[in-house]
Amino acid sequence: MAIQRKANIHILDGNQAAAIAAMMSRVQVIAAYPITPQTPLTEQLSQYVEEGELQAEYVAVESEHSAMAVCTSASLVGARTFTATSSHGLAYMHEMLHWAAGARLPIVLACVNRAIGAPWNVLNDQQDSISQRDTGWIQIYCRNNQEILDTIIQAYRIAEQVFVPVMVCYDGYILSHTEMPVDVPTQEEVDKYLPHYKPHTVLDPAKPKNYNLVTLANPRVGVDGKLCHGYMELRYLLQEALQNSKEVIVKAGKEFNQVFGRDYANVFWEDRNEDAEITIVAMGSLAMEAIVAADMLREQGIKVGVLGLRVFRPFPKSEVVQALRKSKLIVVFDKNISYGSEGATCSEIKSALYGTYINAAVRNFIVGLGGRDVKARELVEATKKAIASLKETVVNPDYPEWICEI
Amino acid sequence: MKANAVNLIEQEWILPGNRTCPGCALSLAYRHILKALEGQCIVTVPASCATVLHGMYPITAVNVPCVNTPFASTGASATGLVAGLKALGKKGITVLAFAGDGGTHDIGIQSLSGAAERQMDFIYICYDNEGYMNTGNQRSGSTPLGAVSGTTPVLGKQQYQKDMTAIMEAHGIPYVATCSASYPLDLYEKVKKARTIEGTRFLHVHTPCPPGWLFPFSDTIKIGEMAVETGLVVLYEIEDGIFRLTSHSESMARRGGNLQPVREYFISQGRFKTITEEQIDELQDWVNARWKQCLHRATNL
User: Fold this and answer.
1) Residue in A with minimal Cα distance to B13
2) Which residue intervals of A117-223 are DSSP H helices?
3) Domain covering A9-199+244-260, topology
4) CATH number of B25-297
């Protein structure tokens, strides 16, 4: 049941939406290092702190590796923490991303998606966050600036229940630097939705504990005779937490609707999928472009639907299978590439479909790397090309096609 | 009242039995550091011998709260502890970063330098065993000239040690000091003093390592003393820019300033088996020149 509330529309770019969301989530420690296109977000947050609008410690660290190290340690004394980065910054953070997830700390990170060098490129694709997919973080992708604001608030609600850090990903420039109407909630609404952070462990001299000690592969008996987990059991618990987090994500999305009147009960967005024979799959802002492409294809009498991936980790396998059950052809557009294989979302879709009764053909296109413009027209042409390819074979090709000049 | 063996606080924060090697100077130094802090601290430890000392889950030998953090991140982790405590309004807890020379001079210098430039309010103690001892003795930025290690196996190290204390002094922090595990009361006094100062405080502790330096386990204290007596290690503190010699270095300066020849120190350790006469002479000149500078800088003689 959606609630009646008065909209408070501001014209915001994606970085502003993210900064407002972090502030309204009452973050207590922010550590960030500027990198294009995330920079205006860190500037905005430091301004909130210096002006006293946000009661938090802003740490202007000397690197992204340190940004995440500040967040992990601040989280362990009981503070709610936030950081943001892009591209090389996220890559530089890689070790600490593993550490944060392994230590089960509910940190929220905004990843403003940008290409990775060499060669240098500051524009958008999703290679940066996709390259971090196996670090144990929940990954949620946004289609527009409203979703950025809403998802960051939800991210704390999710992370602090399952004790898994959450990466909120949004496309550089396309969202980060593009203004659009965003309904900004009141602080009272956010406070109602987001309880205080209750840490699982607090470092305190009154109750000394050692955290992240060397842990053997096998379980080991403690001084009290109690058998404690080995490394592998701790890894299992992280996997289990991610598996179970899907329910928490859906619940947090539903509860969000009850307070803010916007529903996030789905792990992905669907557009006209009920009667679709062909489904376009895309993630992030590309999913919006796919809706335009679907409009154009529908006008030509082709029954096309769109599946816009929102939650990439945990990957919602059974929900994806359910959504694609009527599709004869699935066309996956990826703004990333696992070199030597294919786009990451395509791999996920294929993996989800394997062993089900769905025997749809899957075609994968790599698009928009390094900020290459993706036009709806190109998505239409690619989809038609995919349809035509079915005449030759329904077998999935080994490798994706690229929409570029080679 | 100056600390002595009789009035030193009796409580222990390192419990009996830990995983360090026999004769480990780090263990001895850490014991006195935690006594000086009276356990009222949160420690962050990167990958190092101190990780080994802290034990293996679910058993620890250390009775203070501690977070283990990746190798390069000690300064940032300490920053996070400070920022978190401040954000939550928790007072009266000293944040202690405790790292080896690899984690300080080499891989951790960036995060330490960043934190010191931001004047973060913590004590950073580098225990210096002059090499990557946790991985079985490879060269570090603090391995001395002429020392053989796993990665200087034939010729010995061809470069001088990095003067980390001078680098930290150059950050304009309120307190830097050098210490030795062989002079635990001096170390204790310096940590106690550092505890009362606000801002980034840096202490460098010389911690001889029997298996890495190749000397008998029973000689740890003697080797540490020889380093001070020869002037290879000078005990001093710089508080708000005021340089003072302390402990045995101060006594030597007061007794005419004569140092023991460095040769004895080198022939006492297997790691210097390939050191040449020229290198010993070169090091003697280097020690003499630095000692002269220290005598000149000292304000308390």
Assistant:
1) A208
2) 127-130, 145-162, 187-193
3) Rossmann fold (3.40.50)
4) 3.40.50.970
